[in-house]
Design a protein that fits this description.
six-stranded mixed β-sheet; 37 helices; about 15% strand; alpha/beta
């Protein structure tokens, strides 16, 4: 029985949309698209046009509209879509043109088209396009059943580079499906496959089947609402975001409560599930409801750091009250600001002090909605009571990832007692199942058995273990780690121990200190004075001094907030020009609210339980890429009972194995079974050379990819050893097969054009290797970078007997790395020039410290790149300046501008067909130059 073809899937989807009252429209190319857009836009703006005694736009007026829509970035175009355009007509009137009805989202014009051909720097045909008021706002890419869904995602990314332009820049959402799996995502190029989402019902049951997905998600009113209300324009990143289904349902629940009741409620969404975005969208939409006078978003002052402020500003520019001046809050409350973001501490001050609250008597009786972020912390004390009791017409809603229940209340109120009904749940088990957060690998240190947690010997042993373990846990520093410590005095001792061990990694520390903290120490009561004359502030300054020396900064305890922000940014590892921190020692800071995708390991020498435990663990489980499979936790205290209790409480009694990774023995056994099965089919590496057909190579790639994934998962466990005799496949065999895998991968990851609709059924059904995701990111580690390669070169001794062997090892290291192998020839030439051809100079520069290999490499790469450009210019008889301009624009924009090369080719005076061939050939060569010479 043959599998359903892509064409059949496409036809089935179109029928479903027609059954849902979409108008079927035939659009073959761009001119048809514009013609249809004019008709639909006139239809949508019929009432406005009638007010001016007309039913159409003139051709010149429509051209004005097209020119207006053409300008700007994708982000700016998303704003234009939502704005009214003041069209100056030919007869001197002004018509306000609406492109999208956001208030009555069902009252838009919905159409479906397929196989629209668009000419970019190559022609592409798009599968299914949903047009709203004539604009292509949703693009659907399909793959036949059995093909990996990621291939549809990869195709869209290719379209971003090669063809999307004009009206297609107005796409808001993409949907990808192979019939049995369906996902959607916002038009935010290269955000990563991990940020595609499946749709669910309100109980988090997924709609993976395309027909089920289409009947709900593509319902005209649902799709209209999602595009109008639930696509977010992120001002900070200038990008589009779309809410996930659980965020959508939570906001809808809050809106329903506000519109129809006076009851309160809270939303339980697990840590890492994007509560800030959900709560902000709730605040925005509630503020638009008639009768609502003020919406206040209330946070704890400890959460309103620079990172949080910038996130809030990105969602609601100008709404953050980030001053310590309560007068500013009073001014905002008394003014026209509909949405206000402030701290619970400042709001408490405003309502409890007569000097301030006499200015709030008018707002006191108005309809106010308050949304509390992280409602499990400071919202249970007197501040919260004072605020709630002050306002007479108040509705409150809370968001939390770890609610307070009877089990973890500790004589405090529960979340339900303070906020009322739980409106929506999205638990850690749901988020892990949806791949929105990662599970945890929890390991318990098996070293020192002393029960004295403050023993110097124990602490030294743990510090040495962390230094020895760091590279293994963080994939050679690709990620970084936190170390949670019981108290500030113990943190200070740990910090000094680490310093004494001369670590090769960058270590920092941060903690808060009280002005009059207890100074009792080991000599208290012994009439021998203090064990240490320094106070906590002095100790922190000493840590800051080390930090300043390491990073060239100048922080003091007087500007602690600036130090905090700098530590925060370095732990995020986002800026290439900013050296990161590798390990941060903390007591309480950074264990809640801190989001860093590059953090994957938490070391724990601290008693944690319930919400504190899950909050701390959750610092490590943000989704990033294929390699980061889980957050790693290493406990130096016996926290197993606490871990089990916390997981049970916050996952509605879901079995722990759904959240905590299995023990190493199980992972080890599963990997070995995969190896046994693989070697039965491919007994030695020479078998791979005999694979001739695409299906045979595809089968090998899929089989070995499972070995790669299993190995990546196993090697982060402490017990893992590369040469473990238990594994039937030796490390050398693995590396040999890996090389063959890479050879096939490199030959099959170019830009392949999709088959045309005229392709035969055999061609459509034929499974080829281009349908495979090679997951090359699993085979690349940031440790194989410039610094690493230069360190290896610096260690070379051209006079030693093993020089040739070590030199070759450097080249082999690069060849084995998926993203560096094409640069191996470049490094080989660099070594030839700087070591082989100048042994005496190399040895002399090493001896006197003047070697500066980084500068030498920069100069060498620049010269080699310039030579490659000159050679290409001569080969193709093109302008050197045009090639340089193309590369310069790519370096700046990180995307191709083929029109630069098109203009240069026009000067050659050749025919259209030849121009296209030259363009295709030159762009391919330029991509090789970019890939070879652009590296960190």
């Amino acid at each position: 029985m043959t599998t359903q073809s892509e064409a059949a899937l496409e036809n089935g989807l179109i029928k479903t949309l027609i059954d849902n009252s979409y108008e079927r429209v035939i659009i073959k190319e761009e001119e048809n698209l514009k013609t249809n857009f004019k008709v639909q836009l006139e239809k949508h703006n019929q009432k406005e046009l009638q007010l001016h005694g007309r039913s159409q736009f003139t051709d010149k007026e429509f051209e004005k509209i097209l020119i207006y829509l053409e300008g700007g970035t994708r982000f700016e175009k998303a704003k234009k879509l939502r704005d009214l355009y003041p069209l100056e007509t030919e007869d001197g009137e002004r018509i306000w043109v609406e492109f999208l009805n956001q208030k009555k989202w069902c009252q838009n014009e919905f159409q479906v088209a397929n196989q629209i051909a668009i000419e970019g720097h190559r022609q592409c045909r798009y599968d299914v396009t949903i047009l709203i008021n004539g604009l292509p706002l949703v693009q659907i890419e399909l793959k036949k059943r059995g093909v990996e869904l990621k291939q549809a995602y990869n195709q869209i990314q290719r379209y971003h580079k090669t063809s999307f332009h004009g009206l297609f820049d107005y796409i808001q959402l993409f949907v990808i499906s192979n019939g049995v799996n369906t996902r959607y995502f916002a038009n935010n190029p290269n955000s990563g496959y991990k940020f595609t989402f499946n749709w669910t019902d309100a109980e988090n049951r997924p709609f993976n089947d395309l027909n089920m997905f289409a009947n709900f998600f593509f319902d005209k009113c649902t799709l209209g609402k999602i595009i109008s209300k639930y696509v977010v324009l992120h001002e900070g990143d200038k990008s589009l975001m779309v809410l996930r289904p659980y965020q959508f349902y939570a906001v809808e629940k809050i809106i329903d409560k506000v519109e129809n009741t006076n009851k309160n409620g809270y939303v339980w969404h697990t840590t890492g599930a994007g509560k800030t975005l959900t709560s902000f969208k709730a605040a925005q939409l509630v503020s638009e409801i008639d009768g609502i006078d003020k919406v206040m978003f209330v946070v704890d002052r400890h959460d309103l750091d620079t990172q949080t402020q910038s996130e809030y500003e990105a969602f609601e520019p100008g709404a953050v009250d980030n001053t310590d001046n309560t007068h500013e809050l009073i001014k905002r409350l008394s003014g026209d600001s509909k949405i206000i973001i402030t701290t619970i501490q400042k709001l408490n001050c405003a309502v409890t002090k007569d000097y301030y609250n006499r200015h709030l008597q008018e707002i006191r009786n108005k309809k106010v909605v308050m949304i509390f972020d992280e409602c499990h912390r400071s919202h249970f004390g007197d501040c919260h009571k004072n605020i709630v009791n002050f306002f007479n017409n108040l509705q409150i809603f809370g968001f939390t990832g770890t609610p307070i229940f009877v089990e973890n209340a500790k004589q405090e109120h529960t979340t339900a007692e303070v906020f009322g009904e739980c409106l929506h749940k999205y638990l850690i088990k749901d988020a892990i199942a949806d791949e929105n957060v990662l599970g945890f690998l929890v390991e318990y240190y098996q070293g020192s058995t002393t029960t004295d947690c403050e023993s110097e010997a124990r602490m030294r042993e743990i510090a040495q273990f962390i230094l020895n373990n760091y590279d293994k846990s963080t994939f050679g520093g690709e990620y970084n780690a936190l170390f949670a410590i019981q108290s500030v005095p113990i943190l200070l001792r740990y910090y000094k121990i680490f310093k004494g061990l001369n670590p090769k990694i960058r270590i920092g520390a941060i903690f808060t200190y009280a002005a009059n903290a207890s100074l009792d120490d080991g000599q208290t009561g012994m009439n021998q004075g203090f064990a240490d004359s320094k106070v906590a502030a002095d100790e922190l300054q000493a840590i800051m001094d080390d930090y300043n020396a390491m990073f060239g900064t100048s922080f003091t305890t007087d500007n602690f907030s600036a130090y905090y922000d700098d530590v925060n940014e370095r732990m995020k590892k986002r800026k290439k020009d900013m050296l990161p921190l590798d390990l941060l020692l903390v007591v309480g800071m950074f264990l809640t609210g801190f989001d860093a995708k590059k953090l994957n390991t938490l070391y724990v020498d601290k008693n944690l339980e319930y919400h504190g435990l899950l909050q701390a663990f959750s610092r490590t489980n943000r989704v990033l890429n294929e390699k980061k499979r889980f957050g790693k936790i290493v406990c130096f205290r016996d926290l197993k009972a606490n871990v089990d209790a916390a997981i049970k409480l916050f996952s509605n009694n879901t079995p722990n194995e759904k959240i905590i990774r299995p023990p190493f023995e199980k992972v080890r056994k599963e990997l070995n079974l995969k190896m046994i099965s693989f070697l039965e089919k491919y007994p030695d590496v020479s078998c791979i050379d005999a694979l001739k057909s695409e299906p045979e190579k595809r089968e090998f790639v899929l089989a070995f990819r499972e070995i790669i994934r299993g190995k990546i998962e196993a090697q982060i466990y402490e017990e893992y050893e590369a040469d473990d005799p238990y594994f039937i496949m030796s490390e050398q065999e693995y590396m040999d097969f890996r090389s063959k895998y890479l050879d096939i991968a490199i030959g099959h990851t170019g830009d392949k054009q999709k088959g045309t609709p005229d392709a035969t059924q055999t061609e459509i059904e034929h499974e080829n290797i281009d349908d495979v995701d090679f997951c090359l990111e699993l085979l690349h580690s940031d440790v194989i970078n410039v610094a690493y390669i230069l360190a290896l070169i610096a260690d070379l001794n051209p006079d030693s007997e093993d020089y040739r062997q070590k030199r070759q090892q450097i080249i082999d290291t690069m060849i084995r790395d998926a993203s560096m192998r094409n640069k191996a020839k470049l490094i080989d030439g660099f070594i030839q020039q700087n070591v082989d051809d100048d042994k005496a100079g190399f040895n002399r520069a090493k001896a006197d410290g003047s070697i500066d290999l980084e500068t030498r490499l920069t100069n060498y790469v620049s010269a080699a790149r310039e030579w490659a450009i000159e050679r290409l210019a001569e080969e193709e008889a093109l302008s050197h300046d045009a090639l340089r301009e193309f590369l310069a624009q790519y370096d700046y924009l990180q995307r191709e501008k083929p029109e630069i090369i098109q203009n240069a080719i026009k000067e050659k005076k050749v025919g259209l067909k030849e121009r296209r061939n030259i363009l295709k050939r030159v762009l391919a060569k330029l991509r090789i130059i970019i890939d070879t010479f652009n590296w960190e």
